[in-house]
Amino acid sequence: MTERIFNFSAGPAVLPEPVLAQAQRDLMALPGVGMSVLEISHRSKTFEAILADAKQSLKQLLKLPDNYHILFLQGGASLQFSMLALNFLHQNAAYVQSGSWASKAMSEAKREGQVDVLWSGKSDKYVRMPAQAELALHSAVDYVHITSNETIEGIAFQSDPDFGDVPLFCDASSDILSRPLEIEKYAMIYAGTQKNIGPAGATLVLLRDDQLSRAKSGLHTMLDYRTFTESDSLYNTPPVFTIYCVGLVARWLLEQGGLESMYQRNRAKAAKLYDVIDASSGFYSGHAAADSRSLMNVTFRLANEELESRFVKEAQALGLDGLKGHRSVGGIRASIYNAFPEAGVDALVSFMKDFQSRV
Amino acid sequence: MTERIFNFSAGPAVLPEPVLAQAQRDLMALPGVGMSVLEISHRSKTFEAILADAKQSLKQLLKLPDNYHILFLQGGASLQFSMLALNFLHQNAAYVQSGSWASKAMSEAKREGQVDVLWSGKSDKYVRMPAQAELALHSAVDYVHITSNETIEGIAFQSDPDFGDVPLFCDASSDILSRPLEIEKYAMIYAGTQKNIGPAGATLVLLRDDQLSRAKSGLHTMLDYRTFTESDSLYNTPPVFTIYCVGLVARWLLEQGGLESMYQRNRAKAAKLYDVIDASSGFYSGHAAADSRSLMNVTFRLANEELESRFVKEAQALGLDGLKGHRSVGGIRASIYNAFPEAGVDALVSFMKDFQSRV
């Protein structure tokens, strides 16, 4: 096997090695099928089983009640920003402006109706998520929209906010499957697959059935959620291979003990990095407020950009790749999704301590 | 290597074995990169090179002039039906209703403006494409839309129609790269990748630069072609693996001698099947008129559905898979895209002759 390095990329991101090994095995021909997983028809019994299996594993992982649809779309969270507003924004909706991704979601929604800013962290440079007490609704809205984890800033809701009967929509692209969810609190959760669910190429949508009757009529077929609920995501050719990989990842997560087990591991992994930051006497300066720290994207800065460049470069030379922060905010970002190995976290911890001791 | 059968599916479809072999090799780690092709960031130099290489190979194959953008989107041709109308249908557009896919394109366009039926084969059950003389425009339109190959009915334009200065939009999902194109005749060509370009998961769009200034303003970001031209298809995470595979397929096509060479091979492959149909004294009855026969999807019927079922079942037992016609029209369909091996065509020819001799 070719040597693998530690991939701290924010997405596409590291995948579990057993998943890669099985995908590799099936690449020339699925056992007993005689075709590559890249070549099978989406109307075949083989793919029907792959889709059903992926959905069943996700349902089990998320303890998803029967009244939620599991859909596979395309276009990433960015298309969902538009699609959810096209379907569900009749008059006005309340958005929590928690960071870069929430702001993008708001920009698209504004094309369809009034966007009320329920809370914004913009003036504080998005260092924290709001507390439940800061999220009181004072008027009727079509829905509330949150971003559970801001990938770029590295902040996350630590638990699921509660909006009672008001439909809650959540972009969970960068932390879905990283911890158990109180799923009943959500009307819809969506996530690009390329961070914590699989390779790039699909968008997972969990949609509560009661929302369908609220959707607008006359929508373009591919922008109407009912197209996907009514066809089981098979109105047209779905991203077959990505769905197949999502199924492998979901089964791997079940084998690891499910989301409670992953949550424990993720807390332990993230704590190792935050501990180094906290013990560095300010040499490493974390971006997130302590009570809003992301378990998936650990963001911090050094004294200046020159030092940050040197940090990234030296880490890279040691096989610690993808640590440069998002181009819009700079700094350092270590993305440590479910599949990121603890050995990679330990390697970064060692490097951070060593780097501080040397400069 | 696990044994492979002959896959006559209409898409997702057979891929070249050398492409599968290379994808398989890179599945655990790209040589010199230390990560799987499924794990690389779309902002990495590795992916930049993959994207540039795929575009360069396509440009070379299609002899694409510099004023055409090569874009990778998602959502298949079905989303393009909507997106092209959202962008370019200001008042009215002329559609050639050549079959099932053209009809779907028209349905979505009607949401945005007036759809003039320039020509329709519906009353003849879509057995042929119109001749150039049947395509005269009598009033101004925003664009003309054609479907170069109707996958379901198995009919195809044999050459590129000419509409002068009127922008010509073409859904080429099932025959792009099967023959050289007079590309300058087209303002935009689009195609799902899963038939003749690669695995499912991306939509290739070739868009002439002069069209961008004609697009409507205020569009949702992910539904605006300018988002993709301005970001080189990297506004958000693209379908990385599918684009990688498209690059491998394009390079394979160049190694085969390019599109003129593929066109010769495709004509030879299709001729073998049409010859059996023509020599069968009506046992096999081709759907397409002789002058509109598709080189990609060979459609025919037997005397009754019972015989067709038996044909499909016996073929399947011999490793000839995917021959059942589309569920909307029935009959038999042999999809023989670029990557479909001549040995598979020969095997089907033998089976067809044998089957006729026995029943």
Q: What's this, in brief?
A:
2 copies of one chain form a homodimer. Chain A is α/β, with parallel strands linked by helices.
Low-pLDDT stretches of chain A: none
CATH class of the largest domain in chain A: Alpha Beta
Kindly provide the radius of gyration of chain A, computed on alpha-carbon positions and rounded to a whole number of angstroms: 21 Å
By DSSP, the count of extended strands of chain A is: 14
Q: How many distinct domains of chain A?
A: 2
Give the helix proportion of chain A (percent range): 25-40%
Structural class of chain A: alpha/beta
Number of helices of chain A: 9
Shape category of chain A: globular
Assembly state (oligomeric)? homodimer
Q: Quote the beta fraction of chain A.
A: 15-25%
The CATH architecture term of the largest domain in chain A is: 3-Layer(aba) Sandwich
The N- and C-terminal alpha carbons of chain A lie at a distance of: 36 Å
Largest sheet report of chain A: 7 strands, mixed
The CATH topology of the largest domain in chain A is Aspartate Aminotransferase, domain 2
Strand order within the widest beta sheet of chain A: 2-10-9-8-5-3-4
Average pLDDT taken over every residue of chain A: 97
The CATH homologous superfamily of the largest domain in chain A: Type I PLP-dependent aspartate aminotransferase-like (Major domain)
